[in-house]
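Input sequence (870 aa), recorded before submission:
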Amino acid sequence: MSAIAANPSLCPTVAFPKDPAIVVVRPTNSIEQQMEENMAKLGVSAVMINADSVVSARLCGEDLWIMARAGISMIILGPEQLISKGFQDWLKHEPFFNRVCALGVDEIHLLLLWGLAFCKAFTQIGFMRARFRSGITMIGLTATLLWDSKVADAIFGMLGVNHGEFYLIRRSNSRHDIQILFRTLHSGIDGLYFPEFAWVLKNLDKTIIFAGTITLVFRLKVYLDSLLPPGVDRTLRVRTHHSLNWADENLETITLFKSDLHCQIIVATNGLAQGNDISVIKTVIQVGEPESAEMFVQKPGRAHPNVDDPRAIFYISATRQAKALTVLAQSDAENTADAKKEGTVAMDRPVAQIIAARCKPFIQDELYDNPEADSPCICQSCLAHPPATRPAVCRCSGCLPEISAELYVPPPKQKKVLSDIPRSQRLTKPMKAAGTTRLEAFRALYRASAKLVIPLHQSVVHPLAASGKKQTIPTELKDGLLDFLAQFGQTHSDYLLCKLIVGGNGLSYAMLLQLQAYLQFHDDAFKSFEILEPQLQVWHTKLLLGTDDIFGHFAGLAEAKKLPEIDSLIEIAKKLHHTYSTAQAKDHAIFDIGTTSEWAKTVPTGTTWEEEDKPVPPPCTGDFVLGQAIDFFRDGLNSRKASFAVAEGDVGRLYEAIKHMLFTFAGSTHTNYMGYLLEMIINLELKSSPGLKEALLLCLLVNLTGLLGHFEEGDYVVEFFNRLLEDVVQHKNAQFDDNFIRNVVSRNLRHIAELKLAWRTGSGMKQKSKKHTDPHSDPEMQILLKTYRMEELHSRRLGRQIDDRDTDCFAKGIKKLRSGGLDKWIKKSLQTRQIRRPAEPTTPEPATPVAVEDDSEEVDEEEEEEEGRA
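Predicted structure, token format:
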């Protein structure tokens, strides 16, 4: 176009404006960057405009939209820019509007794959043509347009074109030079060991490994790094490429991969699967089945045609291979119903056909209606490097089974040997006044013996502007954190090098730690989020008198004016505590069958237990049910102790209660919180200085009123503010990212709460008396106590057992941690953090094969359970 515009005599039948331009939309930043570089090599002026380049240019005082108005022949846009204000203003600039002669859309198959799934900006491409001059030429490119007419028609519809209005030029997308191999994936993708891929480090091939999620990318990187010997630079030999990385990090990865012999492997998500032309790739590996038939073609296509013997290897679990056969045997409706029942995404029928087919190239030709041979292309590139022709004998693993040392054969599973150790071895006014006096004395004693108490004060709260990002998605969590950091002046180009405490509940805490692990390969403290100090918040972590009617008993004593003195009630409470809420009481309940111990003299004896179908397991000869009830009391008291410590601002005592909860969680089914609490305790005890430890503990609680006994957990206060914010958002039918919500409402939530209280007080309204709240609690309590009494729950009945569950989670937790649970957690934790270590000085030389020992036996129980999952 530029040549004809400069010299119209070259083609008199076509007219172009003096400064013609083409606008091209490409799906990913890496493809856009690559196209800009390729155009520069051809002498074509081009500019790339995406979210990252716009920000970078703005920091340099440049405006890419204004720069592209004149003198630029090709403008390469990211799809997200089609809904930006810069693009809207661009179209209003008449000189630029008139010089656009053509529109280009690369990887048009992604309109359907990504546009309807997660990248809504892709749907704007179909409207782009209508915004330019009528009659403008549109060019759509893809190597993977399925022959299925429904798929093709959907894509054409999204482009805004109808049949008969365009030319469709279809050529074969077969790469006859690439060997397609299918292997069985034996390791569970949720584990940390992937011995199937150890061979990758033994050769020198430039290899790209595709993983479906950022988490799997990280796990593979960690495993491969663990196999590298000392002296090998872990930041260079194996690199990662995904959307959570900073843009300059991903660009550096591709640059090093092309130019540095030491950079051998990239572990990436699908961002590199589309259209990237990296000339050194020889081996492409996909972990799990391809997401679609398009990905089955796109990913092997990253192997460059100029290398010798390129190949693509798909690792698919036996479970998913069997699932492919099931999908082909059932209807689409049945497959959708099965996927919904399993909570998974239904496998595409074309993907199932590919997995089940013996000859992979044959099924590819069938799905895409590839011709037997294309007509020869006479372009300079094809003349210089003619494409490979169809081989006489197919080399795929279905037609030519592999015999290779790379194939991994898992060792036979060892049967678990069940332990033969039994499970068991593992108020009236005078009373109110008296109680108040004693409780005040107890509070004074309690605070005097406290380890670390927050000074009484009114906490100053500064709510930040709200964010609509989802904390459960790593990329959105990162964006949200960057937003919050920027609100108090911390950016990657200008930040204060100090620790910033960021708290959250269990899941948020785990996501923060995970985010730091993923970003640890960045050298900068801000980009790696080393400046953040994740902190586990604690609100989400906490959780008999010989009479038939305790309420009637005391009512009768009050009527007869014979209520006992407070001292006698305290003595009774002490006896109840030692009888029903201590570890010793649990042991007595299960093992003590005599009648002479102090405990046996205190607990009442119930009727004889006569059910013999469930004998108490030896050596538990006592009352197993009573022991379970004591476990419940003991855990409840620890929770009450933690709640009391919170109200008093006693973070030292709260911390001690949390340590107790660690063992309880370890012995329960909620092992995630065992990991969270271990992270918290190890961070405080081993990784923090005394000053930092105290600061972190003091940040656990806040006091919005400044009154004694009114301290609250930090995450509880956050939930309170969130409730206020959600009410406003719902009332105004707004979004959390709206300007009014971000900059007016969310920043003033504390004042909004105080205004509500002030208005209520000013109008003479006050909080409803607690004497009339929850009117149904007393009847329910009466029913519960009656049930306890009828079942003789708190009486002693030798031989009683209803089920064999061991409810002593505290004891089970100690046993679990002692018997290897703690060592396993330490090993697993160390394997995923502090990986980026300075390499020992070595003489620069190309990467060398690595001798890898088979550590496949070091697979924990959790990974064994995940085996076979894709």
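Checked by second reader. The domain at 2-159 is CATH 3.40.50.300 (Rossmann fold).
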